[in-house]
Amino acid sequence: MASGSPRRKTILEQMGFTFDIIKPESIDENSYLDCNDLHGSIQRLAGIKTELVARNHPDMLVLGADTIVVKDQQVMGKPEDRDDAFAMLQFLSGSKHTVITGIALECVSEKFLRTSVSCTEVFFRTISDCEINYYLSSDEYKDKAGAYAIQGNAMIFVEKIAGCYYNVVGLPVTSTINLFKDFIDRKESADV
Question: Which phi and psi angles does 155 have, rounded to 5°?
Answer without folding.
Answer: -55, -25
